[in-house]
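Retro notes, structure queue

What went well: the backlog is down to a handful. What didn't: a couple of records were mislabeled last round, so from now on we paste the full input next to the output in the thread. Example, using Amino acid transporter from Neobacillus rhizophilus:
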Amino acid sequence: MTKNKPFNDVIDHYDKIEGNAANGSLKKLPKLRYFGYFFISFFALGIMLLIILNILL
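Corresponding output:
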């Protein structure tokens, strides 16, 4: 894998200090992905439950 030449010294510095997010992938973070699925599902089910309870009561 070849490393891209930095645009300038500041970009090179930030790349060394903070890392390069462009090379990362969310597929390598299954726990984060599953947490997102749970979070969205929890709020969607909660909203649907509130709507149903408001209609019935």
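Agreed that this is the format going forward. Reviewer comment attached to the example: Helices lie at 9-18, 30-56.
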